[in-house]
Amino acid sequence: MFDAGRRSAAVRAIPKIFDVPGEEADHPDPNRLRAAKGGRTALIADDDEFFRMALGVILTQRLGFSEVIEATSLDDAVDLLSRHDEIALGVFDLDMPGMKSASSLRAVREEFADLKITVISGSRRRDDILMALTSGVHGYVPKSLGATQIFHALSMVLEGLIYVPQSITMIEVEEAREPAPVRPTLEGLTPRQKEVLELLVLGKSNKEIARRLDLGEGTVKVHMSALFRNLGTASRSATAALGGKLLGG
C-alpha cells in the first residue's frame, strides 16, 4: 500500500513511465473524445493498484473522463455498477478475485446494456480473446501494449468500434485440444455468489435476495447468471438442487 506522499509522487511519475502522449500527438477523432468530458465516469476493475493508477491517468488526462471509480474484484465492480448509472466505460482485468474467465462478463454485459466494456489483460491467448468477444465485450487490450497503444484502443471502443489485438490470428497447438470435463464446485464462486446461492437454496426470490443482501435486483440477476455458468445449470431449480448438494457437502 502507498502512503499519501508516495502515492502522489507515483501519480506524477506515471505519465513519464508509461509515455502518455502529449497534446501534440495524433489520436482518433478528438472532437468525439472531447465529448466524454461531460461528467462521464469510468470504472477500472483490477486488483493491481499501480496499473489502476496508470490507467486512470490515461482515462482522465487523455480520454477526458471526469471521474474514475476503482474496484479490486468482480463483486465490487458489479456492486459499483448497480449504484452508479453514470458509468460509461468499464475496464476489467481477467486475473482478479471473482473473475473465473472472460465469460464472467457476459452477465455484466447483459444487465448493463449501455455500458461499454473492455478487457485489459495480461493474457494474449486466443481462446481468452474469443471468449471475451463471445461474451459481448467491446474490446480486448493486452497489458503488454504501451500507453499510447492502450489509449488508441480505448479511443476506438469509445467511438463505437471493436478493438482486438493481432494475436487473435495466432493459433497455439495446445488450444486445439478438447478440455477435460470439470465437476462443478463452490471453489470458483465469489463470496457474493455463494451468498446468493445459499438464499436461492432456501427458496428466496430475486427480490427477497436483493432485500436480504442490500443489493439491486439487477445485481442479483448478474450473480444468478454467473451461478448458472459456473455450475453448468440452465434454470433456478437446477441451480438450487445442485447448490443444496454442494453446500451440504
TrEMBL record:
The record's listing under CDD domains reads: LuxR_C_like, REC_NarL-like
Q: Which residues form a coiled coil?
A: none
Q: Which residues cross the membrane?
A: none
All copies of the Response regulatory domain together span: 41-158
Q: Which residues carry this modification: 4-aspartylphosphate?
A: D93
Ranges for domain HTH luxR-type come to: 182-247
Under Gene Ontology molecular function, one entry of this record is: DNA binding
Keyword terms, alphabetized: DNA-binding, Phosphoprotein
The UniProt entry, under InterPro entries, shows:
CheY-like_superfamily, EvgA-like, NreC/VraR/RcsB-like_REC, Sig_transdc_resp-reg_C-effctor, Sig_transdc_resp-reg_receiver, Tscrpt_reg_LuxR_C, WH-like_DNA-bd_sf
Any one Pfam family here would be Response_reg
Task: Cite a single GO BP annotation.
Answer: phosphorelay signal transduction system
The UniProt entry, under PANTHER family, shows: HTH-TYPE TRANSCRIPTIONAL REGULATOR YHJB-RELATED (PTHR45566)
Q: What is this protein called?
A: LuxR family two component transcriptional regulator
Organism, by scientific name, is Palleronia aestuarii
